[in-house]
Every structure is written in structure tokens, then in C-alpha cells.
Amino acid sequence: xxxxxxxxxxxxxxxxxxxxxxxxxxxxxxxxxxxxxxxxxxxxxxxxxxxxxxxxxxxxxxxxxxxxxxxxxxxxxxxxxxxxxxxxxxxxxxxxxxxxxxxxxxxxxxxxxxxxxxxxxxxxxxxxxxxxxxxxxxxxxxxxxxxxxxxxxxxxxxxxxxxxxxxxxxxxxxxxxxxxxxxxxxxxxxxxxxxxxxxxxxxxxxxxxxxxxxxxxxxxxxxxxxxxxxxxxxxxxxxxxxxxxxxxxxxxxxxxxxxxxxxxxxxxxxxxxxxxxxxxxxxxxxxxxxxxxxxxxxxxxxxxxxxxxxxxxxxxxxxxxxxxxxxxxxxxxxxxxxxxxxxxxxxxxxxxxxxxxxxxxxxxxxxxxxxxxxxxxxxxxxxxxxxxxxxxxxxxxxxxxxxxxxxxxxxxxxxxxxxxxxxxxxxxxxxxxxxxxxxxxxxxxxxxxxxxxxxxxxxxxxxxxxxxxxxxxxxxxxxxxxxxxxxxxxxxxxxxxxxxxxxxxxxxxxxxxxxxxxxxxxxxxxxxxxxxxxxxxxxxxxxxxxxxxxxxxxxxxxxxxxxxxxxxxxxxxxxxxxxxxxxxxxxxxxxxxxxxxxxxxxxxxxxxxxxxxxxxxxxxxxxxxxxxxxxxxxxxxx
Length: 638
Hints:
Oligomer: single chain
CATH topology of one domain: Alkaline Phosphatase, subunit A
Strand order of the largest sheet: 10-16-15-9-14-11
CATH class of one domain: Alpha Beta
CATH architecture of one domain: 3-Layer(aba) Sandwich
């Protein structure tokens, strides 16, 4: 090749490089300007100096002045008008399973009842009401529930009660003792509705003291919810699947018998299983749904609670379901009955040497107001103290399903954080820690990392299948790239520092990793985003059943600023979180919207949340997802 030709090729190459660079520069110019205006100028940083992609808000003051004005000091226990001990009553079931009468001078009648076959919401009352023999009593036999009423010599009703009984029929001598096998521990899960980690620290001082006296307690402080309410958060924990993501079927109304619940795996592994919930209209799988065709677990006292609420007006249940009395017959707190049912199950499993899996969900008191968890603090604490000696081979989990979802406190930064970060405290038995110390160590390592219900499901499956390998051997045996793993076992595998909400499958509107900047609600972009949010809400509901709502006012607006490690000019999405007041419903909605340089109109991204109570406003629709948004046609404005 001649010298001239070589020189020509060099010049041509330089020209091509210059032209390509100019093309890239001008092609990305709009993106870079958009990035600068919507990220850099609003406080985003090209380098934040931290190694972690997710900056979790772990050091929040529960009594910060921003939330202190919403705090009300309440008693630490539930007071009942005619307080009495539910275990010292006119009638009771003795240790042999016989219904007995404590005093013979009254005439008592009884009636057995139970679950109607094939129906989760109906009861079968057995035979006619019969008189109880005060001397011999009546065996419960195969019955789990019995209603009793007593009258005096003048036929005046002086007493009413409802009793429960669960019995494992196999005799202890027929079984090999398995309930003390270190590799096969029992699992006791207690869920407190709407309990965040922050609110636990704020109000549950007695419970915290009792729990931490058990030793080997780890708080998973980085746990972040995957969805708005109880159902789509608890399903991933119990099945490893997400709802409304094409991972399950019959999500809206059930029945749910075919779902891969973890209690089925425990049952197949020789465990006895329990599902105990206290408020039958609002339980996980029955709220606006069919629940189960067949009884899902060995101990399932749902019929008891349906019977307890049988006299409550449907109108009251629709209007003020969480403002009803928390006492049974004005004598004792219903939460104590709930805990008795758990203790009875544990006692029976211990007596017959069965390991157990018990998922217990307490709903009634704490659903609507974060302050009301104070009322159950002493009850939860007492329960932990009462079962302390029965937890020698039990993994005990105390948790929330999400944080508080209602009220003006959600308009504060701390309120928004705790709504998304439920409590999760796990206690490992001493002998398990002695045999597998790495399990506790790895939990502690991961305690301040980003985790989800899908990760905690992995922990439950480890117990079922007795997977207790060391952290190192687990890593070495996994050939799956870490970037593609949607869930980790939090006691066997170290969760990477670079984990993001995106690869943890946490929707952006529940992500707590990013920084935020408050915007002036008078800015034009806030107005257009607010209008777009209301338009989306109106598009969600059936127009023949629900009224059209309009924007009354914008309450707050924040620009969300992602970590510098994920924020780049190319493809950058500007994200805003808006809180609005809508009329005529008086609803307060919160949602996130995005826009890019190429799609300048705001578009709703992810779920929209209603953060004030909606009561019976949506009585005309049944779908869970539509309940917060519909203001039925037959209602007047608030």
C-alpha cells in the first residue's frame, strides 16, 4: 500500500470517528439536558460515595416531631365492662375433652356446630339444642365447637359462651417422638395486622422485652413489602408466588385450595398445621372471596369466629368494622381467645409429640389506627411469657404484614417509610444455633439488607426440606447468576449489597432506597401529574357502578431521585410521587408517575394507594383491587 493511501485511510478514519462522536453527542443531547434538569438540578448526584445501591432508612426516630402530633397514648391492655378470666367460667372443656358445668344450680343448654362441608363461610349447627347434664357433662368427641347458654330458676338468661376443642386422635404410644428433632423444628408465626418495625419500637415495649428475653432474636430491618395490603404480601410468604403477576390462578375470588401453600409441604413432612385468624369478614382468603372448599389445615377455627360475629349487623360490619367492641360478651378480650386457640394447638402437638407449623394472623384491633397497637401490647407479651417453656425446639416469628396504611401520619416521611417496612423478628432455638451457628450469623449479616417476603419463603422451605448447609457450600452449589436470583435464603446466603428494588421485585412505589425532594404543589408539573393520577383512577372503576371523581387539591409532591449507580442520562425516567384529595368521595390517593424526554406526559407507574379509610363507599364492587377507588353511585358526597 502506497504512503498516500495509508495517509488517506488514517484521515478517513479520523473523520468517521468525529462524525460518529458528533452523531452520538447530538443524538443524546436531549437526554442529557432532560437528565440534568430532572436529576442533577433537583439534587441527584453523579457519585454519592457509598458502596450500596440501596440506602435503607434504618435509623428512624419513632417519636420524631413530624409524627408526634399524631401519637395518642392509650392503655396497654383491653378493658372489658364485666372483666373476667375466660378460663374460669360457668362452663368449660376439661383436659379429657368433656364439656362440663362448674355449678349445678343453673340449667345449661348446648349445641355443637362446625364448618359446612364445601363452604368456608357457612356453619352447620348439629341437631337440636340439648340440655347439659351438670354431673356427667358431654364429650366433645369429633366436634370442635360448642355453643352454651345457661338460665336461672326463673328462666332468665344469665350466661352464654362458645368453646373450642382440637384433638390429635393418634395416641402418643403409636408415634416416635419427633417434636424434639433439631433438624425438624416447629414453626410458630404470629402476624399482627399493620405492624411496622418502627411502630413496634414506638409502642410495644412489653412485647419487645418478653421477646428479647428468649435469646437469639434477629430483626430483619430491611424487609420491604411487595404490594399494598395483606393479601398480596402474605401470599408470597406462604406460596413463594406473587398475585396478579400470572404466577397463580383464581386470585380475585378463589377458591384457593390448589395453591402451593407452605403448610401443605409441612403437612407432607409429618407436621400438624394450623391457620388461625380472628376476624372472619377480613381474613386473608375470605375477604370478598370464597376461601377454601376443603379445610386447609388440621386446626382451622374459622367456624368459631364466624359464630362469634353472627349477631353483628352487616351494616355495622360495612360501616365501622374496626370500631366494634374488642370484648366477647363484655367479659374478656377476644384477643385472649385468639391466643388460647394457639396455646391449645401447641399443647396438643407437644402432648402427642408432633412438630407443628402454625400461621396465626391477628386483625381486629390494629387495622385502622397505628396507635391502637398499644392496646394489645400486654396481651402479646403475656402470650410470649406463657409459651416460653414450650419453644425449646420452635422457630418463633413475630411480624407485621405491612405497616400502617391509613391516616394523616402517612403524609409524613416517617409515615411513608413505616407503611412499607413491616416488622419481622425471628427467634432460633438454642440447640439449632449450637448445631448450625452459621444460620444465626447469616441472619445477622443480612439483618440490615433489602429483603422481601419471597426471601422469607425460602427460609420456610429450608425448614420443611431440612436444608441447613453452610453459607459457603450453598454458594458453591449454586450455578445461577446472582443477578437473576429473585429470592435468597436469608439464613444461608449473604444478600448482595448491590441488590436493588428492581431485582428484588419490589415495585418502585414501595421502594425505600431512593432519595426524595419535596416540590412546591403550585408548580405546573405537579398540577399536570395530579390530573393524570385522577384520570387513571377514573379509568380503573366500572363507570356504571362508580361515580367519577375529580381533583379537589394536591396535598404533597416529591421528586424521587435514584441512586447514582442506577441513574444515567440514557433512558432516564423522571419519577414523581403525588398525594391528592379527590371529591366527592373525600378520598386521599397516593401514586407515582413517570415521564421521559420522549414521552413528556405523566404516566402512572405501579399501584395507586388510598391512604384514608373508605368504609362502605365501595359496597357495590367485590374485587379487592377496586375497593379503595370506587365511590358507589348510590352514595352522596362526603
